[in-house]
Amino acid sequence: MPSAQRSLIRPRIHHRDIKERLVEAFLFICATSAVAVTTAIVVVLVYESAGFFERVSIVDFLTDTMWTPLFAEARYGILPLLCGTLLAAGVALLVAVPLGLMVALYLSEFAPVKVRESVKPFLELLEGVPTVVYGYFALLFVTPLLQNVIPDLPGFNVLSPGIVIGIMIVPYVGSVSEDAMRAVPNALREASYACGATRLQTTLRVVMPAAASGIAAAFVLGIARATGETMVVAIAAGQQPNLTLDPTEPAATITAYIVQVALGDLPHGSIGYQSIFAAGLVLLLITLLFNILAHLLRMRFREAY
Amino acid sequence: MASISPSIAVEAAVPGVAEIRANVVRRRRWDIVFAVVGFLATSVGVVTLLALFVDLVMDGYHRLTPDFFLSFPSRRAAEAGILSAWVGTCLVMMVTAAIGVPLAVSAGIYLEEYAPRNWVTTLIEINVSNLAAVPSIVYGLLALGLFVYALGFGQSILSAGLTLALMIMPVVVVATREAVRAVPHTIREAAYAVGATRWQATRDHVLPYSIPGIATGVIIGLARAIGETAPLITIGALTFIAYLPDPPISTKPPFVSFDWLWSGFTVLPIQMFNWVSRPGTAFHANAAAAGIVIVVLTLAMNGFAIYLRYRLRKRITW
Fold first, then answer.
1. Residue among A128, A242, A68, A219 at smallest CA distance from B219
2. Inter-axis angle of helices B136-143 and A2-55, to 10 degrees?
3. Integer angstrom CA distances of residue B67 from A40, A90, B63, B185, B265
4. From B317's CA, which of A115, B52, B145, B237 has a CA 20 to 30 Å away?
């Protein structure tokens, strides 16, 4: 009798086993696609950039102060694009740091639960607005508004998209720093209150220092976002590469240049086509650098408790 | 030795009660000032959202006629519409959802339910979080080099859908992992106890419980994909498309056709970008009208996702 039963059960177990293995293999392949995508990004960027650097020397690329790939006498110095990118990110940060910090401090330490619960969805919605719409807003609402204050501001400038990007990243920067503040143990706050400190004193002298590296990480991630932002600057900053530190002038960012070339329909394999990959590689390296920095800052924060 | 009375000593060392009261009042006032400033800073976001929407509506509301949805783009601003753009958006989203969602949900399930603790898993996790930080335009460059030229898909709906599928993957993976992790272990153990295999326990018990959480992530990811412009411009989406791709369904056998996958296309945000870049308020009005459509669409999706998560948090108590 046992043998008869076993013969009935065994094939089914065997069948189930295979199915289990197949499912697991399928899920594993899906998960490894993340690695494949990263690898593909690096391979594509490096491969096309290698073609670019065969024709343009790296020294010229890094030191030349002109970026004129579409002129007859083409010059490929990344500095003007890099400058435009960092200028826009800098303006964005000037807006996002005070605003984001206040939002995080307020929501984490001051806001009544009801206010917090009703404001946070709005901030999330703000994050959901497509960037092309923010571009429209920067060009046709913020720039005219700024022209009332600065009369000779040109229609295309870095200031207006910078400000808009800043407001755009506030929800992100705010929520990441709020997480850092919430991770500060309540015992620290209670100890501070027990010494007779007010809420503001506790916030500024206990919570903020304790969460400092987490907050710093939030801002570094914010810069990384602002650096990679494309549509707002492509629409509102003009697309002239311009080596300047004056945000009231028009300038092109790395991302805006890529958009400009892609719209122009350059032939595959031409140096103009390869140049957007070299520019993209620089962009990827910058964002990677900021992200590693943020990661290190966060690790330091985690060690504290 | 003449002893000093204790009350005098205290008064000498510590300020009077009145001063302490004044101090407390002053500090309380600073508390309130800070709370008000914090509230104002927080409302800058809400005010911006309102200003943006009011601006779009004032500029573009008069263009939102039925004709606007049923016309192709045109050189004459007053006759131009978004027919090819919204059809393109729908088709691209179909590809993105069909490829991106199963891929990302499977990856999330693997990482949460199957993955052993080893270097391969760590590598995958690092890659997922890195991909979330990659600027969207870099996905466009990847797609341009890989899908458009190396694989020969061309500047098609298929390339666009694949690009956006890869782009939303990290968001959906993270949401899936969170949703799956929130299912208590007792559920899995109960399933194992009655003889279920790991996949059976996952498919029949863990997944049904985590569907709302996964759906939230999927909706947010797709909303982001709908509004995404830069990677599609990079792969060479055309800005002037005055035809529709082949319909996916026909009345003649074999009834379904996939020719549309290879078709050129445009999408709503690219159409809007095209109109913004042109001089002249007539085209800007079109851009604003397209903007209203995009904002309403993405905000509705995001709002639904937020609502879903809110209900989820409220309802489920294990």
1. A128
2. 90
3. 43, 43, 9, 55, 20
4. A115
> What angle (nearest 5°) sits at the alpha carbon of residue A196, between those of residues A190 and A200?
75
* Tokens read off for A16: 């189930």
Same domain (yes/no): A181, A253: yes
- C-alpha–C-alpha distance, residues A157 and B147, integer Å: 35
How many Cα neighbours within 13 Å face the side chain of B243?
A: 6
Calpha distance A40→A46 (Å, rounded): 10
What are the residue ranges in chain B where pLDDT is below 50?
Answer: 1-4, 8-10
Q: Which of B30, B125, B129, B141 is best to mutate for the A interface (most A CBs within 10 A)?
A: B141
> Which structural domain, as residue segments, surrounds residue A40?
2-55
Alpha carbons A5 and A8: distance in angstroms, whole number: 5
Instruction: Identify any residues that bridge with B249 across adjacent strands, giving them in sequence order.
Output: B256
- To which CATH superfamily is domain B66-315 assigned? MetI-like (1.10.3720.10)
Residue-wise pLDDT tens digits, A67-120: 877 777 777 888 888 888 999 999 999 999 999 999 999 998 888 888 888 888
Q: Token pair for residue A34?
A: 């993340």
Residue-level pLDDT at B101: 94
Alpha helix ranges (H) inside A106-158: 113-128, 131-137, 143-149
* Cβ distance of A99 and B134 shorter than 8 Å: no
Answer whether B113's CB lies under 8 Å from B187's CB.
no
| Rounded-to-integer distance, Cα B299 and Cα B50, Å | 12
**Residues A167, A283: one domain?**
yes
Residues A142 and A275 in one domain: yes
Confidence of residue A1 (pLDDT cuts 50, 70, 90): very low
DSSP character at residue A269? T
Q: Which residues of A touch B130 (CB under 8 A)?
A: 38, 288, 291
Q: Do B239 and A263 touch (CB under 8 A)?
A: yes
In chain A, how many domains are there? 2
Torsion (CA) B282, B284, B287, B292 in degrees, nearest 10 = -100
Q: What is the pLDDT of residue A7?
A: 56
Rg of chain B over all Cα atoms, to the nearest angstrom: 28
CA triple B26-B30-B31, angle to 5 deg = 115
Interface test with A, best of B137, B202, B235, B299 (most A CBs within 10 A): B137
Exposed/middle/buried for A269, CB within 10 Å: 0-12, 13-18, 19+?
Answer: exposed
- CA separation for the pair A282, A293 (Å, rounded): 17
- Summarised one tens digit per residue, pLDDT across range B142-172 is 999 888 888 888 888 899 999 999 999 999 9
Please name which of A70, A71, A79, A103 lies closest in space to residue A263, comparing C-alpha atoms: A70
